[in-house]
């Protein structure tokens, strides 16, 4: 999440091409469904935020509901590609999502994605607009989702062009140590980790930052019990396929580790 505004544009595949692998799975997988969250500014054509839901096999206990968010910075296309690939892999092997109900938003900033820009078409960084309140329709749509769905956990995918390695944000010690650290370890087989003591103006250790930005996408303030939040950042200047591979490996690891954590806490 670099602070400097971007001057260069980064384009991913068109929205339709990006989502094509999932669209083709919709009829075939009974676990997967899709929805379009349409929003429209009176002055512009309507846009939509794509949402996919994946219901894994039952895990023996109540489903754990996760929100996975990518592309809130429209030029961080690796995250959007990784979100799509990850879901396609779950459809191919649904047991990977045992016990989880996943809502996945591969493109949280549709105009920024279309334009290849970090900001949306109104020129705002949407990841600083949450719960302030914001006039941006994308943010209103997402806040509404977050309020309605009451996620147990938030996973966000980003890329940082000021970082030469992988890192992430996690607030609670439990998730920093037991979920984000193993995810970074697994992903660092593909891309190096950022070991700097300060990342993005925050103190960091082994690629883990334990703070968050004001206004970033996440639970409504005061939500109890407090959902967990993990943000993964890939080095944006690394080859896109490597960023995608690293993010997908990290997401699988997060699902496994969080499940292990849940079953451990239930056995206490
Ligand atoms: Zn970002």
Record the SSE blueprint:
Elements: H1 15-26, E1 32-39, E2 47-55, E3 64-70, H2 77-92, E4 100-105, H3 110-115, H4 137-149, E5 153-160, E6 167-170, H5 173-187, E7 198-199, E8 202-205, E9 208-209, E10 228-235, H6 240-266
Parallel strand pairs: 3-4, 3-5, 5-10, 6-9
Antiparallel strand pairs: 1-2, 2-4, 6-10, 7-8, 8-9
Helix pairs in contact: 1-2, 2-6, 5-6
The chain binds zinc ion.
Topology, number of strands? 10
Task: Say which molecules are bound, naming each kind only once.
Answer: zinc ion
Approximately what portion of the residues adopt beta-strand conformation?
A: 15-25%
Q: Strand order within the widest sheet? A: 1-2-4-3-5-10-6-9-8-7
Helix-strand topology string:
HEEEHEHHEEHEEEEH
Q: Count of DSSP helices?
A: 6
Which word captures the global form?
Answer: globular
Biggest sheet descriptor: 10 strands, mixed
Poorly predicted segments:
none
Report the end-to-end length measured between terminal Cα atoms: 37 Å
Q: Tell me the helix content.
A: 25-40%
Task: Please identify the structural class as seen in this structure.
Answer: alpha/beta
> What is the arithmetic mean of pLDDT?
93
- Radius of gyration from CA coordinates: 17 Å
């Amino acid at each position: 999440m670099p602070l400097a505004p971007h001057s260069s544009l980064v384009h991913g595949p068109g929205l339709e091409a990006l989502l094509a692998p999932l669209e083709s799975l919709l009829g075939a997988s009974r676990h997967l469904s899709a929805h379009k969250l349409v929003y429209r500014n009176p002055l512009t054509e309507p846009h939509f935020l794509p949402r996919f839901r994946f219901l894994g096999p039952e895990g023996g206990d109540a489903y754990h509901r996760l929100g996975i968010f990518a592309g809130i910075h429209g030029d961080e296309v690796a995250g959007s590609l990784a979100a799509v690939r990850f879901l396609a892999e779950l459809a191919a092997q649904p047991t990977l999502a045992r016990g989880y109900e996943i809502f996945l938003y591969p493109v949280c900033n549709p105009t920024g994605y279309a334009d290849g820009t970090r900001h949306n078409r109104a020129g705002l960084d949407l990841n600083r607009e949450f719960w302030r309140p914001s006039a941006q329709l994308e943010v209103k749509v997402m806040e509404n989702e977050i309020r309605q769905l009451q996620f147990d956990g938030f996973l966000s995918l980003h890329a940082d062009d000021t970082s030469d390695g992988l890192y992430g944000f996690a607030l609670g010690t439990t998730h920093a140590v037991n979920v984000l650290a193993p995810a970074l370890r697994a992903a660092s087989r593909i891309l190096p980790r950022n070991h700097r003591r300060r990342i993005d103006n925050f103190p960091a250790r082994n690629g883990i930052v334990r703070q968050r930005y004001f206004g970033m996408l996440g639970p409504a303030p005061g939500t109890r019990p407090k959902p967990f939040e993990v943000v993964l950042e890939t080095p944006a200047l690394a080859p896109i396929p490597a960023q995608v591979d690293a993010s997908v490996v990290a997401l699988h690891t997060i699902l496994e580790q969080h499940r292990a954590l849940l079953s451990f806490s239930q056995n206490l």
